Amino acid sequence: MEQQFSLAYLSVINTPPPEMTYMAARAGYDFVSLRPINMGLPNEPDFSLASNKTLLRDTKRALRETGLEVLDIELARVADGIDPMTYEPEFEIAAELGARHVLSSIWSDDRSYSIEQFAKICDLAKQYNLTVELEYVPIASISNLADTLDILDAAQKDNAGLMIDIHHFHRAQDTIADLSKVPKELFRFVHLCDAPGEIPTDHDELVRIIREGRSYVGEGGIDVAGVINSIPTVPYSIELPNKEQADLLGYEEFARRCLVKAKEYFKKNSRSNQEINMR
């Protein structure tokens, strides 16, 4: 399978879906990963495609004109007080746009509740031929590989999968050995980035790096090659927010550089390319 790349929302945060799509196409990406589900964060723009018909029309036009596809939409969180049914309008639009996956994460400390709600999200997504990829996040309730696999095993949904974010994998201190044991069918895409190797002990610094301080692939301290060579070849969604570089270069050039550096890294370090070079 040829390597394919998507531009993730956090890399160009606050960029509307149509503009993000054109930007991704000009930079050389194969997909876009959109965030039409509003999270209610301070100063977060509302890019709901289900409620904004003009935005939806312009997004459809951008996808049609560029030929790009939507890899996934985010973020269908499991959290106390959130009814999974509120995600249905965006799931319906995602299916209309040809999206493949829904990204989810868990922010409730109630395990039984989390399993039940995650299962509901999967059932809802299945009606629209979408898979649900569960991501663990260092600052969330489910924050490591073992606990994520526990939820997936308990939910027992055939359209549920595991989404590894390379930054989060490193921060959770998960191991390549454990990753290698995960059933290959659970992987459908990966969040690709790098970050400083030292794990912050300060919560605010951890959040800062997650939101705006990640590194170009190959320029941080994470064993990115170890991760990508332990899982099947899947699309790589570049989620690499770096405010300093984005402010310096502008979003489009920053997005292009993220992709160029990722491809350069893969050429030297991915298992598939190493095998080709040995022939």
Automatic annotation (TrEMBL):
InterPro entries: IolE/XylAMocC-like, Xyl_isomerase-like_sf, Xyl_isomerase-like_TIM-brl
Gene Ontology terms for molecular function: isomerase activity
Annotated ranges, domain Xylose isomerase-like TIM barrel: 24-241
PANTHER family in alphabetical order: BLL3656 PROTEIN, HYDROXYPYRUVATE ISOMERASE
Keywords attached to this entry: Isomerase
Lineage: Bacteria, Bacillati, Bacillota, Bacilli, Bacillales
One Pfam family cited in the UniProt record for this chain: AP_endonuc_2
Residue ranges of coiled coil: none
Protein name: Sugar phosphate isomerase/epimerase
